[in-house]
Automatic annotation (TrEMBL), chain A:
Pfam families: BPD_transp_2. It comes from Desulforhopalus singaporensis. This is Branched-chain amino acid transport system permease protein. It is a multi-pass membrane protein. CDD domains: TM_PBP1_LivM_like (cd06581). Keywords: Cell membrane, Membrane, Transmembrane, Transmembrane helix.
Automatic annotation (TrEMBL), chain B:
InterPro entries: AAA+_ATPase, ABC_AA/LPS_Transport, ABC_transporter-like_ATP-bd, BCA_ABC_TP_C, P-loop_NTPase. GO terms for cellular component: plasma membrane. Coiled coil: none annotated. This is Branched-chain amino acid transport system ATP-binding protein. Keywords: ATP-binding, Nucleotide-binding, Transport. Residues 4-238 form the ABC transporter domain. One of its GO terms (biological process) is L-alanine transport. Pfam families: ABC_tran (PF00005), BCA_ABC_TP_C (PF12399). Transmembrane segments: none annotated. The keyword Transport applies. PROSITE patterns: ABC_TRANSPORTER_2 (PS50893). One of its GO terms (molecular function) is L-valine transmembrane transporter activity.
Amino acid sequence: MNNSTQTLNPFDKLLDLTCFTPLGLLSLLVLAILPMVPPFNQEYLIRWLISAAFIASMAIAFDFTAGLINIVNFGYCAIMGLGAYTSAILVERLGLSPWLGMLAGGLAAAGMGLMIGMITLRLRGIFAACLAWFFGLALMGLATKLVWLTRGPMGMRVDRLFDTPSNVPFYYLLLAMMVIIYITCKWVTRTHMGVAFMAIGQNMEAARTSGIDPVFYRVSNFVLSCAIGGVLGGFYAHYYGILTPDIMHTSKTVEVLAVAYIGGRGSLWGGAAIAFPFIFAMELIRSSLSDLPGINLVLYGLLLIMVMIYYPGGFAQFFNTYFRQTGNKMASYLFNGVAADTK
Amino acid sequence: MIVLETKELTKRFGGLTAVNAVSMHINEGDIVGLIGPNGAGKTTLVNAIAGLNPPTSGEVITFGQKTTGLTPEKMCRKGLSRTFQIPIPFPKMTVLQNVMTAAIFGNRPGVIKDHAAHSRKMLEFVDFPIHEDTVSEQLNTVQLKRLDLARALASNPKLLFLDELASGLSEGELKDMMELILKIRDHGVTILMIEHIMQLIMNLCNRLVCIQFGTKIAEGTTEEVANDPKVTKAYLGGSGNTEAAAA
């Protein structure tokens, strides 16, 4: 990668810096103009777009832990909820600006990530996942029971970020957040830190024997991933304007997990790419089959099983196998870029 | 100079004593063979020294410093490296990335300027047969063993543990591996190898340590140990007869 950097033209250089392929950038442009194009300029479709972009962002940060260091954070949406409640409470009680509230939510979630990272340190795979899940359940329990603080299941009213009934500014803000999250995560994976993450995720013993201290890397991975979740939680609170403990439920984590896994573990971009068509399909199914509540959860399960059997690497693996290795020069540039890493 | 010494090293798993008060030493420049029947506790002993499974009691002294119970990553920085009996490196990484991992994290920061170049040198050193961009889950056993060796060497060890590196190799591959091990020794690396293949042991090792049921039954030059009746008995005589072997 490094030896070709000098010869790149500015456009390719920008792509390389932002870790986008030309196709990735193109898709992003399409997403950016979508709310202006009928039929997508209707408010309810923009709401779908927002929930897709939200799941996409969550999937990127979730995959940062699950795909790289191989620990499935089953309490991820509870951490997101912690960020949401922190932000909401600070804004409502102390009159903080929602923007600062989002940051504070990120900090609170990062602190929780630090704690979970420390406690699960000695545990492997499934045990660490379970412990993270219990943390999530405990957080949700707190949000339900601390009625004086959170108003529990009655729901908490929160100021919105923008004082407008339109969803469009929220959509663009979230899209920008998604891009920043993607670039941040991708940048970290390109450094030596990313190498350490992959090494401890793939073979703990060999990693330690190679001189990698798992404590530092595991905890910092958790902290970053949870911090992102917390900021997203802040957005959630100040977008929907109402907060209930439901958002911390495990089924929400499973939704993120399904998108991240179907998109492709460890790819980071896979989950984001798949989230948009996926959420639209799910919303359509939900609205057309409204007499079958919960059918979308059954579909998640089926899809996950199919992905596990046929494409353990998810959509990213499918894409890498059938599109990236094309002989066509133009197509290869579109799919790979000049200097893009194919990981 | 003694590079590694263990004093009364013991490892218990609950009621089972896997390694029982083993004292041994390795001189600089040696190729020491650690031999013994299956299940004798050879790998456990190596794990106890290298930190993957810290010892219950006893002492480990590496390069003159007390290193009992240090974590594997700390032992790696001190100059101890190892390969695994069943080499499963980082399956989703390419061959080059595998070696680079150890090149980056196994050395003190700043010692190696160009990690990729250093890793390529290591791959060349072990005669790695195929392209460096191959994903390592596609490799066969022989290639994996060479890859694991290159990874172990990338952290510039002074002491190297080889855990059954030669098992499962064909006659020709065995000869190549023998030359490679000698080449590593000639680069100033002291080697402790767990091995079952007598041909390799007799040709390479200048000293042997033999353990049975977790207890050391012989230590000395290759000749001495190989002719020791206790060792012959451990390998050929009936199983489970500890008292006779220890007598």
